[in-house]
Amino acid sequence: MHNSRYSQIKKFATAAKATFKIEKPFKLHKLDNGPASTVTLTPEDAIKIYENLVMLRRIENAANTMYKEKLIRGFCHLYTGQEAVAVGIRSMLRKVDTVVTSYRCHGWAQLMSGDMFGVLAEIAGCKSGRSRGKGGSMHIYAKNFYGGNAIVGSQIPLGAGIAFAHKYRNDGGVCFAVYGDGAANQGQAFEAYNIAKLWNLPCVFVCENNIYGMGTSIKRSSASTEFYKRGDYIPGVWVDGMDVLASREAARYAIEHCNSGKGPLIMEMETYRFTGHSMSDPGTSYRTREEVKQMRENRDPIKVFREKVTSTGLVTAAKLKELSNRIREEVNDAFERIKVEKESGPEDLAADIYQKNLHPSIRGIIPNAPLAHANFYKQENDFIPLEKKEKKN
């Protein structure tokens, strides 16, 4: 078995494993020890991480184009530049762990579902989307993924609630509640911190600090910009969120911390979005084009990771190019399919309100004109539309 594996990886690697040092040290709050400062990867690990990074970038590139071609209506918030946070954390999650995040959720939806077409179709409001087109860009779900949430900061107390469910069930799971620096000043965040620590809930509060809350710099909006210390009585870790390996080790540490019965943890992931806050924001009125250019050139998480794994012989540049080309073709094909997909119909209006509806109809806004309730999803189908499930089978 070992010889067979070795013969396989020789096709795209010259090293069986490689060890990397975390370049920017972790900063700790109320902790004696932090995440590991070195990371060892196999070629298989590197390929999976790179594949996920590139897939997230391609999905957001497609969403960008879809918005400009008016295939997306409403809001659209891209994750471009922040991929290392989600990919690093996701690589350490177990089947029992859960995630809830903000409206900037396309990347997390892809990582938790593995359903690239379903994610893009949902963003476009198509019936074949993850939420049958009713959720759109900000409300996408998957098994153990409690969505995108459009209300700023609402996912923080939701995360504490999901963590409470883990503790109540004693299933060993940990919830990662992901929010931005713009939501970090809200009162509900501190209420969630309080109850999470009071009950020692297995919750990791992940602050994705991309330096700007909409168009306002953290220096102008926050009296304290050390978000990992915001929990006061809750331990915290600062992480370089542009380094996927740092995110990976921080997630590993966070899960171990919560599972040891020590209660919640706050992780500040310092990252950077290359685009504006949303598609309606050019992102250049509150920061210079030169700043964005420098970040793209020197701190792009995909570029940085690619240089690490190719320079150590862990994966060849040719193999990574092959992966990138394949992913580009897959996303392009999905994009073309979405152009002819059907939108949600009137029958979806009152559908899937309940998992088990006790009444055959739902009261609408017009008296004596109830709406028929229908179930298009089943829990065991992991939110896959029934007709899509049948096609798979």
TrEMBL record:
GO terms for molecular function: pyruvate dehydrogenase (acetyl-transferring) activity. Its EC number is 1.2.4.1. It is an enzyme of class 1 (oxidoreductase). Its cofactor is thiamine diphosphate. The keyword Translocase does not apply. CDD domains: TPP_E1_PDC_ADC_BCADC. Residues 52-346 form the Dehydrogenase E1 component domain. InterPro entries: DH_E1 (IPR001017), PDH_E1_Alpha_Subunit (IPR050642), Pyrv_DH_E1_asu_subgrp-y (IPR017597), THDP-binding (IPR029061). It holds the Pfam family E1_dh. GO terms for biological process: pyruvate decarboxylation to acetyl-CoA. Keywords: Oxidoreductase, Pyruvate, Thiamine pyrophosphate, Transit peptide. It catalyses: N(6)-[(R)-lipoyl]-L-lysyl-[protein] + pyruvate + H(+) = N(6)-[(R)-S(8)-acetyldihydrolipoyl]-L-lysyl-[protein] + CO2. The pyruvate dehydrogenase complex catalyzes the overall conversion of pyruvate to acetyl-CoA and CO(2). This is Pyruvate dehydrogenase E1 component subunit alpha. It comes from Papilio xuthus. The lineage of its organism: Eukaryota, Metazoa, Ecdysozoa, Arthropoda, Hexapoda. The gene is LOC106120746.
